[in-house]
Write the structure tokens for this entry.
Amino acid sequence: MYIIVGLGNPGIKYAGTRHNIGFNAVTRIADDYNISMNIKKHKAVCGTGFIAGNKVLLAMPQTFMNLSGESVRELVDFYKIDPEEELIVIYDDVSMDVGRMRIRAKGSAGGHNGIKSIISHLGSDKFPRIKIGVGAKPEGWDLADHVLGRFSDEDNKTMRDMLGEASAACRDYITDGINEAMNRHNS
């Protein structure tokens, strides 16, 4: 079983913000594979289904970004998965341009509080992740204001395309492994 976690903040107030691109990616994956997101447990909204014949659980932690690790730890423990092989975390990255994507097998939090929380709760930075570029904060802006802001109309179209790419990257990771997914999708 694979667990795909999209990071974001719950509530209407945060819908469509840069910080919620992980939620948007999970929603796209759910749409692509007809997975109903109708389960509320492990401090997350979840859905189970199949991608290319492999059982998956999609999850959107409802703990707010900075506490994402609480939900991820519960999911990993309950389903007894190996985070290095069977977990994929999707989240926003301000160090990459809008519409860029990078798959990594492990790594530091890079200043992302959701990833810091997951690393802290798992006790390891060795878990696959898909980082989706949301653009750098404009000069003089507060980082929180930037990531909690919304995309321009032009960037929204770019991001819709990128969400399809993220969905395909998850499928390729599940079917062909992380190295093949990185070769195909790292931009």
